[in-house]
Amino acid sequence: MANSERTFIAIKPDGVQRNLVGEIIKRLEQKGFCLIAMKLIQASEDLLKEHYIDLKDRPFFAGLVKYMQSGPVVATVTLDHHY
């Protein structure tokens, strides 16, 4: 596994609401990503502010945090195998 890289991928509230989780996971797997963890979460404001800290000075930051809190998020970790 020395040539594998872990990637965090979040399926945002609209993707969950529109029942696209299965299709998104399918497409990731077709691109060579191997799902190793998945969790449905309701992200807290503090978690989102920490996750998006590099965007805190942008004018859309507050709206982004509010949007990401608007519904559940599917948090995933994948392995990207480089063959």
From TrEMBL:
UniProt similarity note: Belongs to the NDK family.
The organism's taxonomic lineage, starting at the top: Eukaryota, Metazoa, Chordata, Craniata, Vertebrata
Class of the enzyme per the UniProt entry, highest EC level: transferase
InterPro entries linked to this entry: NDK-like_dom (IPR034907), NDK-like_dom_sf (IPR036850), Nucleoside_diP_kinase (IPR001564)
GO annotation, biological process: CTP biosynthetic process; GTP biosynthetic process; UTP biosynthetic process
Name by which UniProt lists this protein: nucleoside-diphosphate kinase
Key words, A-Z: Kinase, Transferase
Essential cofactor(s): Mg(2+)
Top-level taxonomic group: Eukaryota
MF (Gene Ontology): nucleoside diphosphate kinase activity
Domain Nucleoside diphosphate kinase-like stretches: 4-80
E.C. designation(s): 2.7.4.6
Organism from which the protein derives: Canis lupus dingo (dingo)
Residue ranges of coiled coil: none
